Amino acid sequence: MTSLPDIPLPASIRSRYVENINGLRMHVLEAGFETKGRPCLLLLHGFPELAVSWRKVMPALAGAGYHVIAPDQRGYGRTTGWDARYDGDLGSFRFLNIVRDALGLVSAFGYRSVDAVIGHDFGSPIAGWCALLRPDAFRSVVMMSAPFAPPPSLPFNTANALAKPRDQDAVHRELAALPRPRKHYQWYYSTREADPDMHRAPQGVHDFLRAYYHHKSADWKANKPYPLKAWSAEELAKLPTYYVMDLARTMPETVAPEMPSAAEIAANQWLPDSELAYYAAEYQRTGFQGGLQWYRCGTSGAFDAELQTWSGRTIDVPSCFIAGKQDWGPYQRPGALEAMQKTACTDMIGCHLVDGAGHWVQQERPEEVNRLLLQFLKGAAGNRDR
C-alpha cells in the first residue's frame, strides 16, 4: 500500500484503515478527530466515486463540531476484503450486508449511534436503508441525488387467489425495439462486459471518467431535467444517453462525444485534472466490478424476498433530500421523488434542488450543500428533542 498515490485532501482530513469491518479492511477518511466526545456523521459515496468525493464537505461539518467519517465502500478504492470477480459472491454486495458494513464501522469507532447518515448516488439508498432498519443507530438521514424507494411489497390478499408471478419488465424489450434502439444503463452495468468496457476504455480511464463526470454535471448545458410521465420506453428514451444508452454502444462510447474541450477542463474548479487523476488511478488499479455488483443486486431481483421482510415500513427519523437542479437523477424513475416525500419518509424536513449543480452536487456546489446539511442537522436535532 506504500506505493499508492497521495490523496488530494485538505490538511484537516486524514486517511486511515480500520480492520475487521464485516470481513473488510476499510479505508476511511476522517475529519474532526482531534477532540473526543463529538457527535458522529457517516458519509457514504456512490458510483463511480470514492470517499474523496466528500473532501469539500467534511471540513465544514467538522468545523461545526462533528466527527466525520467517510469510507471507501465495499467494492471501492482502498478498502479490501471484497470479491472482485463477476462470478464472485454477489450476495456480499446486497443492501443488508452493506448496511452491516456501515453499522460495523460506526461501532468500531466507539459510537452506539450517529447524528446522521448521509449518502450520495448509490450511497443514498444505503443511507435510507440504514435509517429504516436501525433508526436507533442512524438518528437522521440525508439522501442525495437518488430518491429512496420503499421496501418491495409482499403479495397481498392472495390466500384465495393465485399470486401473480413476478413479471419480466417489458420496458427493456420495448426500449430495444424503438426506432433508435436503446438500453437502460443499470441493466448494462449488470452485464459481464461493463467492467472490461470501462476498465479498458479506448480513451483511457482518465478521459472516460472526465467525459462521464462532465456529461452528468451542470457543465453539460443540455441537462435540463423534468418529470417523466411513466416507466415506458417512449418516456425513458427522453433521458440523456448516460441513463438510457444507444443499444449498441458501451458507456465509454456513449460519453466520448461529450468530452469537454481543453479550455473547459482547465476552467473546471469542482474537479480539476489533478483531482480527477486520483479517481482514475484508483479505478485503473481496482477496475469497476466492485461498484457494478451493487447494480446487479438490484436488477437481478435476487434479494427482493429478503427486503420484503420490511414491506410497508417507512423511514421515521428526520430526513432530507438534496440534488442538483440540473440532475436527471431525481427523475430517472418516474414518480420516485414524490413517493419518497409522500410515502417512504414520514418526517422529511427538507427537499432541495441546488441550482448550478448536476449529479455531483456536493462537489459542484459544496458551499450550498454544506449550508443545507448544517441547516438540516440543526432541524433534525430539534425534531428529536420534541
Written overview of the protein:
The chain has 386 residues and is an alpha/beta fold. It folds into 2 domains: 13-152 and 312-385, Rossmann fold (3-Layer(aba) Sandwich), CATH 3.40.50.1820; 171-292, no CATH class. It has helices at 58-63, 95-108, 123-133, 171-176, 185-189, 194-199, 205-215, 233-236, 251-255, 262-267, 273-286, 289-300, 304-307, 336-344, 361-364, 366-385, and strands spanning 13-21, 24-31, 40-44, 67-71, 116-120, 141-144, 182-184, 244-246, 319-324, 348-354. It is globular and about 60 Å long. It starts with 12 loop residues before the first strand and ends with a helix. The mean pLDDT is 96.
In short:
The protein has 386 residues and is α/β, with parallel strands linked by helices. Helix content is 35%, strand content 14%.
Mean pLDDT: 96
The topology string of helices and strands comes to EEEHEHEHEHEHHHHEHHHHHEHEHH
CATH architecture of the largest domain: 3-Layer(aba) Sandwich
* Residue share in β-strands: 5-15%
CATH topology of the largest domain, by name, is Rossmann fold
The named CATH superfamily of the largest domain: Alpha/Beta hydrolase fold, catalytic domain
